[in-house]
Amino acid sequence: MTDGDPGPGGPQTLRLQVMGPLRVWRGDTELDAGPRQQRCLLALLLARGGRPIAMTDLIDLIWGPKAPSSAVNVIHKYVGALRRLLEPGLRARATGSYLVRQGNGYRFLAGSETLDLIAFRQRVAAGRASAAAGDVEQALDRYADALRLCHGHAGEGLSESAAAMATFATVDGEFYEAAAAAAEIATRVRRPSPVLAPLRLAMKMGPLNEPVHASLMTALAAAGHQAEALAVYRTIRHRLAEDLGIDPGHDLQEAHRRVLNQTVASAGENPPLLEAGRTAAVPLVRPAQLPPDLPLFAGREAELDGLRGLVAGMRDERRSSPLVVALDGMGGVGKSTLATRLAHLVAAEFADGQLYLDLQGDQDREAGLLARDALSSLLYALGVPASNIPDTCDARIGTYRSLTAGRRFLILLDNVRDSEQVRPLLPNSAGSLVLITSRRPLTALAAFDGAHLVRVDVPDLSSARALLARRLADLPDGAGAESADPEIMDEIIELCGRLPLALAVLAARLIARPRLSPATLLAELRDGARRIEDFPGVRDSRTTCSWS
Length: 548
Known about the structure:
The chain is an alpha/beta fold. 47% of the residues lie in helices and 9% in strands. It has helices spanning 36-47, 55-63, 71-86, 116-132, 136-147, 162-188, 193-205, 210-222, 226-244, 250-261, 301-312, 335-346, 371-381, 393-404, 419-422, 443-449, 461-471, 486-495, 500-512, 518-526, 528-531; strands at 14-17, 23-26, 29-31, 99-102, 105-108, 323-328, 354-358, 410-416, 433-438, 452-455. Helix 6 runs antiparallel to helix 7 and helix 7 (193-205) packs antiparallel against helix 8 (210-222).
Protein backbone atom coordinates (compact mmCIF):
# COMPACT_ATOMS: atom_id res chain seq x y z
CA MET A 1 0.00 0.00 0.00
CA THR A 2 1.40 3.38 -0.92
CA ASP A 3 1.34 6.44 1.32
CA GLY A 4 -1.91 8.39 1.29
CA ASP A 5 -4.71 6.97 -0.86
CA PRO A 6 -3.79 3.57 -2.24
CA GLY A 7 -2.59 4.09 -5.77
CA PRO A 8 -3.10 1.99 -8.86
CA GLY A 9 -2.03 -1.63 -8.66
CA GLY A 10 -2.58 -4.81 -10.57
CA PRO A 11 -6.11 -5.58 -11.71
CA GLN A 12 -6.65 -7.98 -8.77
CA THR A 13 -4.70 -6.08 -6.06
CA LEU A 14 -6.92 -5.61 -3.02
CA ARG A 15 -6.32 -2.71 -0.64
CA LEU A 16 -8.38 -1.55 2.33
CA GLN A 17 -8.39 1.61 4.43
CA VAL A 18 -9.76 1.76 7.98
CA MET A 19 -7.63 4.65 9.35
CA GLY A 20 -10.23 7.13 8.19
CA PRO A 21 -13.47 6.49 6.27
CA LEU A 22 -13.73 2.84 5.22
CA ARG A 23 -12.55 2.43 1.62
CA VAL A 24 -11.87 -0.67 -0.49
CA TRP A 25 -9.96 -0.84 -3.79
CA ARG A 26 -9.26 -3.58 -6.28
CA GLY A 27 -6.51 -2.30 -8.50
CA ASP A 28 -7.40 1.31 -9.29
CA THR A 29 -11.15 0.75 -8.89
CA GLU A 30 -12.85 1.69 -5.62
CA LEU A 31 -15.50 -0.79 -4.54
CA ASP A 32 -18.83 -0.23 -2.79
CA ALA A 33 -18.62 -2.12 0.55
CA GLY A 34 -22.40 -2.39 0.80
CA PRO A 35 -25.01 -1.08 3.23
CA ARG A 36 -24.04 0.76 6.41
CA GLN A 37 -24.13 -2.18 8.86
CA GLN A 38 -22.19 -4.38 6.44
CA ARG A 39 -19.52 -1.69 6.15
CA CYS A 40 -19.50 -1.36 9.93
CA LEU A 41 -18.88 -5.12 10.27
CA LEU A 42 -15.96 -4.95 7.84
CA ALA A 43 -14.49 -1.86 9.52
CA LEU A 44 -14.66 -3.48 12.96
CA LEU A 45 -12.86 -6.60 11.73
CA LEU A 46 -10.21 -4.43 10.06
CA ALA A 47 -9.77 -2.34 13.21
CA ARG A 48 -9.00 -5.48 15.19
CA GLY A 49 -5.96 -6.00 12.94
CA GLY A 50 -6.23 -9.77 12.56
CA ARG A 51 -7.60 -10.55 16.02
CA PRO A 52 -10.88 -12.53 16.11
CA ILE A 53 -14.20 -11.12 17.28
CA ALA A 54 -16.75 -13.50 18.80
CA MET A 55 -20.28 -13.49 17.46
CA THR A 56 -21.77 -12.06 20.69
CA ASP A 57 -19.22 -9.24 20.58
CA LEU A 58 -19.97 -8.53 16.93
CA ILE A 59 -23.66 -8.21 17.73
CA ASP A 60 -22.92 -5.83 20.61
CA LEU A 61 -20.52 -3.80 18.47
CA ILE A 62 -22.96 -3.37 15.58
CA TRP A 63 -26.29 -2.95 17.39
CA GLY A 64 -25.57 -2.51 21.09
CA PRO A 65 -28.54 -3.33 23.35
CA LYS A 66 -31.00 -2.93 20.44
CA ALA A 67 -29.88 -6.03 18.52
CA PRO A 68 -32.66 -7.77 16.56
CA SER A 69 -33.45 -11.45 17.10
CA SER A 70 -32.13 -12.13 13.58
CA ALA A 71 -28.71 -10.57 14.30
CA VAL A 72 -26.72 -13.81 13.85
CA ASN A 73 -28.32 -14.52 10.48
CA VAL A 74 -27.77 -10.92 9.38
CA ILE A 75 -24.06 -11.15 10.22
CA HIS A 76 -23.74 -14.42 8.29
CA LYS A 77 -25.40 -12.71 5.33
CA TYR A 78 -23.01 -9.73 5.55
CA VAL A 79 -19.99 -12.04 5.78
CA GLY A 80 -21.05 -13.89 2.64
CA ALA A 81 -21.55 -10.64 0.74
CA LEU A 82 -18.18 -9.29 1.85
CA ARG A 83 -16.40 -12.48 0.84
CA ARG A 84 -17.86 -12.23 -2.66
CA LEU A 85 -16.92 -8.54 -2.81
CA LEU A 86 -13.31 -9.16 -1.79
CA GLU A 87 -12.88 -12.30 -3.92
CA PRO A 88 -15.34 -12.24 -6.83
CA GLY A 89 -14.34 -15.68 -8.10
CA LEU A 90 -15.01 -17.39 -4.77
CA ARG A 91 -17.21 -20.50 -4.94
CA ALA A 92 -20.48 -20.51 -3.02
CA ARG A 93 -20.04 -21.18 0.74
CA ALA A 94 -16.22 -21.07 0.39
CA THR A 95 -14.32 -19.26 3.17
CA GLY A 96 -11.82 -17.42 1.01
CA SER A 97 -8.51 -15.85 2.01
CA TYR A 98 -9.60 -12.83 4.07
CA LEU A 99 -12.75 -13.29 6.15
CA VAL A 100 -12.22 -16.55 8.05
CA ARG A 101 -14.23 -18.23 10.76
CA GLN A 102 -12.63 -18.64 14.19
CA GLY A 103 -14.62 -20.31 16.92
CA ASN A 104 -18.09 -18.81 16.75
CA GLY A 105 -16.76 -15.52 15.38
CA TYR A 106 -14.64 -14.11 12.56
CA ARG A 107 -11.28 -12.52 11.91
CA PHE A 108 -9.84 -10.63 8.94
CA LEU A 109 -6.49 -11.83 7.62
CA ALA A 110 -4.37 -9.35 5.70
CA GLY A 111 -0.79 -8.17 5.39
CA SER A 112 0.70 -4.70 5.20
CA GLU A 113 0.26 -4.63 1.42
CA THR A 114 -3.50 -5.05 1.87
CA LEU A 115 -4.54 -3.23 5.06
CA ASP A 116 -3.39 0.28 6.03
CA LEU A 117 -3.54 -0.46 9.79
CA ILE A 118 -1.06 -3.35 9.47
CA ALA A 119 1.28 -1.18 7.38
CA PHE A 120 0.95 1.64 9.94
CA ARG A 121 1.88 -0.61 12.85
CA GLN A 122 4.84 -2.09 11.03
CA ARG A 123 6.22 1.34 10.14
CA VAL A 124 5.73 2.65 13.69
CA ALA A 125 7.55 -0.41 15.05
CA ALA A 126 10.37 0.23 12.58
CA GLY A 127 10.52 3.85 13.73
CA ARG A 128 10.75 2.81 17.36
CA ALA A 129 13.49 0.32 16.53
CA SER A 130 15.50 2.96 14.69
CA ALA A 131 15.09 5.39 17.57
CA ALA A 132 16.18 2.73 20.07
CA ALA A 133 19.26 2.07 17.93
CA GLY A 134 20.11 5.79 17.97
CA ASP A 135 19.32 6.46 14.29
CA VAL A 136 16.81 9.24 14.89
CA GLU A 137 16.85 10.53 11.31
CA GLN A 138 15.73 7.17 9.98
CA ALA A 139 13.25 6.88 12.86
CA LEU A 140 11.61 10.15 11.81
CA ASP A 141 11.34 9.01 8.18
CA ARG A 142 9.66 5.76 9.23
CA TYR A 143 7.26 7.52 11.58
CA ALA A 144 6.39 10.01 8.82
CA ASP A 145 5.65 7.13 6.42
CA ALA A 146 3.31 5.63 9.01
CA LEU A 147 1.51 8.86 9.84
CA ARG A 148 0.69 9.58 6.20
CA LEU A 149 -1.57 6.51 6.20
CA CYS A 150 -4.14 8.14 8.50
CA HIS A 151 -6.96 10.19 6.92
CA GLY A 152 -9.29 10.76 9.86
CA HIS A 153 -11.17 8.87 12.55
CA ALA A 154 -11.01 5.09 12.11
CA GLY A 155 -14.25 3.78 10.60
CA GLU A 156 -15.50 7.36 10.33
CA GLY A 157 -19.28 7.62 10.45
CA LEU A 158 -19.90 3.92 11.12
CA SER A 159 -20.11 3.80 14.96
CA GLU A 160 -23.62 3.13 16.23
CA SER A 161 -22.73 1.66 19.63
CA ALA A 162 -20.46 2.66 22.49
CA ALA A 163 -18.46 -0.54 22.02
CA ALA A 164 -17.82 0.22 18.33
CA MET A 165 -16.77 3.77 19.20
CA ALA A 166 -14.26 2.37 21.72
CA THR A 167 -12.86 -0.06 19.14
CA PHE A 168 -12.28 2.67 16.58
CA ALA A 169 -11.00 5.07 19.26
CA THR A 170 -8.24 2.57 20.07
CA VAL A 171 -6.95 2.88 16.50
CA ASP A 172 -7.14 6.67 16.73
CA GLY A 173 -5.16 6.46 19.97
CA GLU A 174 -2.36 4.61 18.20
CA PHE A 175 -2.19 7.46 15.67
CA TYR A 176 -2.08 10.08 18.44
CA GLU A 177 0.74 8.27 20.25
CA ALA A 178 2.77 7.83 17.06
CA ALA A 179 2.26 11.50 16.12
CA ALA A 180 3.48 12.65 19.53
CA ALA A 181 6.50 10.32 19.41
CA ALA A 182 7.37 11.51 15.91
CA ALA A 183 7.04 15.15 16.99
CA GLU A 184 9.52 14.62 19.83
CA ILE A 185 12.05 13.17 17.39
CA ALA A 186 11.35 15.82 14.74
CA THR A 187 11.93 18.61 17.27
CA ARG A 188 15.12 16.97 18.40
CA VAL A 189 16.61 16.73 14.90
CA ARG A 190 15.23 20.16 13.83
CA ARG A 191 13.05 18.66 11.05
CA PRO A 192 9.50 19.58 12.07
CA SER A 193 8.01 19.74 8.56
CA PRO A 194 7.23 15.99 8.13
CA VAL A 195 5.05 15.93 11.27
CA LEU A 196 3.12 19.20 10.99
CA ALA A 197 0.34 17.90 8.73
CA PRO A 198 -0.23 14.69 10.76
CA LEU A 199 -0.24 16.70 14.00
CA ARG A 200 -2.76 19.18 12.63
CA LEU A 201 -4.96 16.22 11.62
CA ALA A 202 -4.52 14.67 15.10
CA MET A 203 -5.52 18.01 16.67
CA LYS A 204 -8.75 18.07 14.64
CA MET A 205 -9.49 14.45 15.49
CA GLY A 206 -8.75 14.92 19.21
CA PRO A 207 -9.80 18.49 20.06
CA LEU A 208 -9.20 17.83 23.79
CA ASN A 209 -6.09 15.66 23.46
CA GLU A 210 -3.47 17.57 25.45
CA PRO A 211 -0.33 15.59 24.44
CA VAL A 212 -1.17 16.05 20.75
CA HIS A 213 -1.66 19.80 21.15
CA ALA A 214 1.55 20.11 23.17
CA SER A 215 3.44 18.20 20.47
CA LEU A 216 1.97 20.40 17.73
CA MET A 217 2.92 23.55 19.64
CA THR A 218 6.51 22.36 20.03
CA ALA A 219 6.76 21.33 16.37
CA LEU A 220 5.29 24.64 15.19
CA ALA A 221 7.77 26.57 17.33
CA ALA A 222 10.61 24.45 15.92
CA ALA A 223 9.37 25.40 12.43
CA GLY A 224 9.44 29.09 13.36
CA HIS A 225 5.63 29.44 13.67
CA GLN A 226 5.45 30.79 17.23
CA ALA A 227 2.25 32.74 16.61
CA GLU A 228 0.39 29.65 15.40
CA ALA A 229 1.78 27.65 18.34
CA LEU A 230 0.39 30.19 20.80
CA ALA A 231 -2.95 30.18 18.97
CA VAL A 232 -3.12 26.40 19.40
CA TYR A 233 -2.60 26.86 23.15
CA ARG A 234 -5.30 29.51 23.44
CA THR A 235 -7.75 27.31 21.55
CA ILE A 236 -7.34 24.19 23.67
CA ARG A 237 -7.21 26.18 26.91
CA HIS A 238 -10.62 27.63 26.01
CA ARG A 239 -12.00 24.18 25.08
CA LEU A 240 -10.76 22.60 28.32
CA ALA A 241 -12.33 25.37 30.37
CA GLU A 242 -15.64 25.36 28.48
CA ASP A 243 -16.11 21.61 28.02
CA LEU A 244 -14.42 20.11 31.08
CA GLY A 245 -13.97 22.99 33.49
CA ILE A 246 -10.24 22.31 33.91
CA ASP A 247 -6.96 24.10 33.24
CA PRO A 248 -4.26 22.83 30.84
CA GLY A 249 -2.10 20.03 32.22
CA HIS A 250 1.65 19.86 32.69
CA ASP A 251 2.50 18.97 29.06
CA LEU A 252 0.57 21.92 27.66
CA GLN A 253 1.83 24.38 30.23
CA GLU A 254 5.43 23.33 29.68
CA ALA A 255 5.07 23.55 25.89
CA HIS A 256 3.50 27.00 26.28
CA ARG A 257 6.37 28.13 28.50
CA ARG A 258 8.95 26.89 26.00
CA VAL A 259 7.23 28.67 23.11
CA LEU A 260 6.99 31.91 25.08
CA ASN A 261 10.62 31.71 26.17
CA GLN A 262 11.70 30.64 22.69
CA THR A 263 13.61 27.65 24.09
CA VAL A 264 12.54 25.39 21.21
CA ALA A 265 15.30 25.58 18.61
CA SER A 266 14.02 26.39 15.11
CA ALA A 267 14.69 24.38 11.98
CA GLY A 268 17.99 25.33 10.43
CA GLU A 269 19.77 25.84 13.74
CA ASN A 270 22.66 23.49 14.32
CA PRO A 271 21.79 21.03 17.11
CA PRO A 272 24.52 20.05 19.57
CA LEU A 273 25.95 16.67 18.70
CA LEU A 274 26.65 13.70 20.90
CA GLU A 275 28.82 10.71 20.17
CA ALA A 276 28.15 8.71 17.01
CA GLY A 277 26.46 11.71 15.41
CA ARG A 278 23.30 11.49 17.52
CA THR A 279 21.46 14.72 18.18
CA ALA A 280 20.96 15.91 21.71
CA ALA A 281 17.55 15.39 23.26
CA VAL A 282 15.52 18.28 24.61
CA PRO A 283 13.26 16.56 27.17
CA LEU A 284 10.24 18.40 28.53
CA VAL A 285 10.87 16.79 31.93
CA ARG A 286 14.24 15.71 33.29
CA PRO A 287 13.66 13.51 36.34
CA ALA A 288 16.36 13.21 39.02
CA GLN A 289 14.93 10.66 41.45
CA LEU A 290 17.97 8.75 42.70
CA PRO A 291 18.05 8.18 46.48
CA PRO A 292 20.87 10.04 48.25
CA ASP A 293 24.26 8.33 48.07
CA LEU A 294 25.44 6.77 51.33
CA PRO A 295 28.07 9.09 52.88
CA LEU A 296 29.61 6.22 54.89
CA PHE A 297 29.98 3.84 51.95
CA ALA A 298 33.04 1.59 52.27
CA GLY A 299 34.48 -1.31 50.29
CA ARG A 300 32.98 -3.03 47.23
CA GLU A 301 35.83 -1.77 45.00
CA ALA A 302 35.94 -4.98 42.94
CA GLU A 303 32.17 -5.02 42.42
CA LEU A 304 32.12 -1.35 41.41
CA ASP A 305 34.98 -1.85 38.96
CA GLY A 306 33.14 -4.71 37.28
CA LEU A 307 29.86 -2.79 37.10
CA ARG A 308 31.51 0.34 35.69
CA GLY A 309 33.10 -1.88 33.05
CA LEU A 310 29.63 -3.01 31.97
CA VAL A 311 28.48 0.62 31.73
CA ALA A 312 31.57 1.52 29.69
CA GLY A 313 30.56 -1.22 27.22
CA MET A 314 27.42 0.77 26.35
CA ARG A 315 29.54 2.85 23.98
CA ASP A 316 29.39 -0.05 21.52
CA GLU A 317 27.37 1.33 18.59
CA ARG A 318 26.04 -2.13 17.79
CA ARG A 319 23.83 -2.15 20.90
CA SER A 320 20.12 -2.39 20.15
CA SER A 321 18.66 -2.68 23.66
CA PRO A 322 19.19 -1.09 27.08
CA LEU A 323 21.88 -2.36 29.43
CA VAL A 324 20.10 -4.28 32.20
CA VAL A 325 22.10 -5.20 35.31
CA ALA A 326 20.33 -7.24 38.00
CA LEU A 327 22.00 -7.43 41.41
CA ASP A 328 20.79 -10.28 43.62
CA GLY A 329 21.64 -11.36 47.15
CA MET A 330 20.19 -12.01 50.60
CA GLY A 331 18.40 -9.30 52.55
CA GLY A 332 20.75 -6.85 54.24
CA VAL A 333 23.74 -7.68 52.05
CA GLY A 334 23.90 -4.16 50.59
CA LYS A 335 22.42 -4.56 47.08
CA SER A 336 20.50 -1.29 47.15
CA THR A 337 23.44 0.63 48.61
CA LEU A 338 25.78 -0.73 45.93
CA ALA A 339 23.31 0.02 43.13
CA THR A 340 22.76 3.55 44.43
CA ARG A 341 26.51 4.19 44.67
CA LEU A 342 27.01 3.00 41.08
CA ALA A 343 24.06 5.10 39.89
CA HIS A 344 25.57 8.27 41.36
CA LEU A 345 28.97 7.47 39.85
CA VAL A 346 27.61 7.17 36.30
CA ALA A 347 24.54 9.46 36.42
CA ALA A 348 26.24 12.20 34.41
CA GLU A 349 26.40 9.88 31.38
CA PHE A 350 22.58 9.77 31.10
CA ALA A 351 21.49 13.17 29.88
CA ASP A 352 17.73 12.56 29.99
CA GLY A 353 17.60 11.92 33.73
CA GLN A 354 17.31 9.27 36.41
CA LEU A 355 14.21 7.37 37.51
CA TYR A 356 13.85 5.42 40.76
CA LEU A 357 11.12 3.05 41.94
CA ASP A 358 10.87 0.69 44.91
CA LEU A 359 8.85 -2.30 43.64
CA GLN A 360 8.38 -3.65 47.18
CA GLY A 361 8.92 -7.25 46.15
CA ASP A 362 11.29 -8.09 49.04
CA GLN A 363 8.75 -9.54 51.47
CA ASP A 364 7.25 -12.68 49.89
CA ARG A 365 6.24 -14.16 46.55
CA GLU A 366 2.89 -12.35 46.48
CA ALA A 367 4.18 -8.94 47.55
CA GLY A 368 5.19 -6.08 45.34
CA LEU A 369 3.92 -3.24 43.22
CA LEU A 370 1.80 -4.26 40.23
CA ALA A 371 3.33 -3.46 36.84
CA ARG A 372 0.42 -1.16 35.89
CA ASP A 373 0.90 0.86 39.09
CA ALA A 374 4.66 1.01 38.60
CA LEU A 375 4.14 2.26 35.05
CA SER A 376 1.77 4.93 36.32
CA SER A 377 4.49 6.21 38.68
CA LEU A 378 7.12 6.21 35.94
CA LEU A 379 4.87 7.98 33.44
CA TYR A 380 4.01 10.64 35.99
CA ALA A 381 7.72 11.12 36.69
CA LEU A 382 8.23 11.63 32.95
CA GLY A 383 5.72 14.48 32.92
CA VAL A 384 2.52 12.70 31.85
CA PRO A 385 -0.42 14.30 33.70
CA ALA A 386 -2.30 11.82 35.89
CA SER A 387 -5.45 12.45 33.84
CA ASN A 388 -3.64 11.42 30.64
CA ILE A 389 -2.13 8.16 31.90
CA PRO A 390 -3.83 5.33 29.93
CA ASP A 391 -6.18 2.97 31.74
CA THR A 392 -4.84 -0.37 30.49
CA CYS A 393 -1.47 -1.85 31.31
CA ASP A 394 -0.67 -2.48 27.62
CA ALA A 395 -1.38 1.16 26.76
CA ARG A 396 0.82 2.31 29.63
CA ILE A 397 3.64 0.09 28.39
CA GLY A 398 3.30 1.58 24.91
CA THR A 399 3.33 5.14 26.22
CA TYR A 400 6.34 4.42 28.44
CA ARG A 401 8.29 2.91 25.54
CA SER A 402 7.39 5.84 23.31
CA LEU A 403 8.60 8.35 25.90
CA THR A 404 11.89 6.52 26.45
CA ALA A 405 12.62 5.70 22.80
CA GLY A 406 16.02 6.93 21.63
CA ARG A 407 16.82 8.65 24.94
CA ARG A 408 19.39 8.09 27.69
CA PHE A 409 17.86 7.31 31.06
CA LEU A 410 19.31 5.71 34.18
CA ILE A 411 16.56 3.67 35.85
CA LEU A 412 17.01 2.12 39.32
CA LEU A 413 14.35 -0.48 40.17
CA ASP A 414 14.75 -1.61 43.78
CA ASN A 415 13.42 -4.72 45.54
CA VAL A 416 12.14 -6.53 42.46
CA ARG A 417 10.17 -9.71 43.11
CA ASP A 418 10.72 -11.54 39.81
CA SER A 419 11.33 -11.09 36.09
CA GLU A 420 7.66 -10.72 35.19
CA GLN A 421 7.25 -7.79 37.58
CA VAL A 422 10.09 -5.82 35.99
CA ARG A 423 9.94 -6.75 32.30
CA PRO A 424 7.21 -4.18 31.38
CA LEU A 425 9.39 -1.45 32.92
CA LEU A 426 12.34 -1.88 30.56
CA PRO A 427 12.74 1.24 28.38
CA ASN A 428 12.80 1.26 24.58
CA SER A 429 16.28 2.71 24.33
CA ALA A 430 19.73 1.28 23.63
CA GLY A 431 21.22 4.28 25.41
CA SER A 432 19.57 3.60 28.77
CA LEU A 433 20.86 1.76 31.83
CA VAL A 434 18.53 -0.26 34.10
CA LEU A 435 19.85 -1.24 37.54
CA ILE A 436 17.77 -3.84 39.38
CA THR A 437 18.04 -5.28 42.89
CA SER A 438 16.37 -8.52 43.90
CA ARG A 439 16.74 -11.24 46.51
CA ARG A 440 16.51 -13.91 43.83
CA PRO A 441 18.53 -14.30 40.61
CA LEU A 442 16.34 -13.06 37.73
CA THR A 443 17.32 -15.87 35.39
CA ALA A 444 14.36 -15.35 33.04
CA LEU A 445 15.39 -11.72 32.59
CA ALA A 446 18.86 -12.89 31.65
CA ALA A 447 17.56 -15.57 29.28
CA PHE A 448 15.00 -13.49 27.41
CA ASP A 449 16.08 -9.86 27.90
CA GLY A 450 19.87 -10.13 28.00
CA ALA A 451 20.21 -8.96 31.61
CA HIS A 452 23.60 -9.24 33.31
CA LEU A 453 23.20 -11.11 36.62
CA VAL A 454 25.55 -10.01 39.40
CA ARG A 455 25.58 -11.88 42.71
CA VAL A 456 26.22 -9.63 45.72
CA ASP A 457 27.74 -11.67 48.56
CA VAL A 458 28.59 -10.64 52.09
CA PRO A 459 31.92 -8.76 52.22
CA ASP A 460 35.08 -10.54 53.29
CA LEU A 461 36.35 -10.02 56.83
CA SER A 462 38.74 -7.26 55.82
CA SER A 463 36.01 -5.29 54.04
CA ALA A 464 33.60 -5.83 56.94
CA ARG A 465 36.22 -4.45 59.32
CA ALA A 466 36.64 -1.36 57.12
CA LEU A 467 32.86 -0.88 56.96
CA LEU A 468 32.50 -1.09 60.75
CA ALA A 469 35.51 1.19 61.34
CA ARG A 470 34.02 3.77 58.97
CA ARG A 471 30.75 3.62 60.85
CA LEU A 472 32.42 3.98 64.25
CA ALA A 473 34.67 6.87 63.25
CA ASP A 474 32.41 9.31 65.13
CA LEU A 475 32.84 7.59 68.49
CA PRO A 476 34.59 9.81 71.05
CA ASP A 477 38.27 9.12 71.70
CA GLY A 478 38.83 6.44 74.30
CA ALA A 479 35.46 4.78 73.74
CA GLY A 480 35.33 1.08 74.32
CA ALA A 481 35.12 0.08 70.67
CA GLU A 482 38.24 2.04 69.78
CA SER A 483 40.47 0.04 72.12
CA ALA A 484 38.62 -3.26 71.92
CA ASP A 485 40.43 -6.51 71.32
CA PRO A 486 40.48 -7.11 67.52
CA GLU A 487 39.38 -10.70 68.14
CA ILE A 488 36.30 -9.42 69.98
CA MET A 489 35.42 -7.11 67.09
CA ASP A 490 36.00 -9.88 64.55
CA GLU A 491 33.67 -12.20 66.44
CA ILE A 492 31.05 -9.46 66.60
CA ILE A 493 31.37 -9.05 62.84
CA GLU A 494 31.00 -12.79 62.26
CA LEU A 495 27.99 -13.00 64.59
CA CYS A 496 26.42 -10.32 62.40
CA GLY A 497 26.99 -12.63 59.45
CA ARG A 498 29.16 -9.85 57.97
CA LEU A 499 25.91 -8.38 56.70
CA PRO A 500 26.40 -4.66 56.01
CA LEU A 501 22.90 -3.79 57.25
CA ALA A 502 23.43 -5.64 60.54
CA LEU A 503 26.82 -3.98 60.99
CA ALA A 504 25.28 -0.56 60.32
CA VAL A 505 22.58 -1.14 62.95
CA LEU A 506 25.18 -2.37 65.46
CA ALA A 507 27.42 0.65 64.83
CA ALA A 508 24.47 2.99 65.33
CA ARG A 509 23.76 1.29 68.65
CA LEU A 510 27.35 1.70 69.78
CA ILE A 511 27.36 5.38 68.79
CA ALA A 512 24.10 5.93 70.66
CA ARG A 513 25.60 4.23 73.77
CA PRO A 514 29.34 5.03 73.64
CA ARG A 515 29.90 3.53 77.13
CA LEU A 516 28.66 0.14 76.00
CA SER A 517 31.54 -2.30 76.18
CA PRO A 518 32.26 -4.35 73.04
CA ALA A 519 32.73 -7.32 75.34
CA THR A 520 29.26 -6.79 76.79
CA LEU A 521 27.84 -6.42 73.30
CA LEU A 522 29.57 -9.63 72.25
CA ALA A 523 28.07 -11.48 75.19
CA GLU A 524 24.61 -10.28 74.18
CA LEU A 525 25.18 -11.34 70.59
CA ARG A 526 26.32 -14.80 71.68
CA ASP A 527 22.87 -15.22 73.19
CA GLY A 528 21.03 -16.48 70.12
CA ALA A 529 17.64 -15.91 71.70
CA ARG A 530 18.34 -12.17 72.04
CA ARG A 531 20.31 -11.59 68.87
CA ILE A 532 17.41 -10.58 66.64
CA GLU A 533 16.12 -8.22 69.32
CA ASP A 534 19.41 -6.33 69.07
CA PHE A 535 18.72 -5.68 65.37
CA PRO A 536 15.17 -4.23 65.21
CA GLY A 537 15.80 -2.73 61.78
CA VAL A 538 16.62 -6.06 60.15
CA ARG A 539 13.88 -8.34 61.44
CA ASP A 540 13.21 -9.79 57.99
CA SER A 541 16.81 -10.98 57.85
CA ARG A 542 15.63 -13.75 60.18
CA THR A 543 14.49 -15.68 57.12
CA THR A 544 17.44 -14.95 54.87
CA CYS A 545 20.53 -15.73 56.93
CA SER A 546 21.67 -17.79 59.88
CA TRP A 547 22.69 -15.90 62.99
CA SER A 548 24.79 -18.76 64.35
